């Protein structure tokens, strides 16, 4: 495995650990932000053009 991949995987582990340690209320805030972002992407005019194209 390359050094780059080791760094990527280590970073993912650290991020997962940090997220797991958050209080439940903070996880809900993150979930709401992700939902809002997802809705914005779905409504994006670029996404609509890609479907038509």
Description:
- This protein has 53 residues and is mainly alpha-helical.
- 87% of the residues lie in helices and 0% in strands.
- The chain has three helices and no strands.
- The longest helix is centred in the middle third of the chain and has 20 residues, at 24-43.
- It is flat, with a radius of gyration of 17 Å.
| Strand coverage percent | under 5%
State the secondary-structure class.
Answer: mainly alpha
- Average of pLDDT: 91
Give the total of beta strands: 0
- The number of distinct helices, counting runs of at least 4 residues, comes to 3
Sheet having the most strands: none
Rg of Cα set: 17 Å
- What pattern of helices and strands is seen along the backbone? HHH
Task: Report how far the terminal alpha carbons are from each other.
Answer: 40 Å
The stretches of 5 or more residues where confidence is low (pLDDT under 50) are none
The amount of helix comes to over 70%
Shape field: flat
């Amino acid at each position: 495995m390359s050094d780059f991949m080791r760094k990527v995987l280590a970073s993912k582990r650290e991020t997962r650990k940090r997220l797991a340690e958050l209080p439940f209320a903070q996880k809900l805030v993150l979930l709401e932000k992700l939902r809002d972002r997802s809705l914005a992407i779905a409504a994006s005019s670029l996404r609509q053009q890609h479907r038509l194209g």
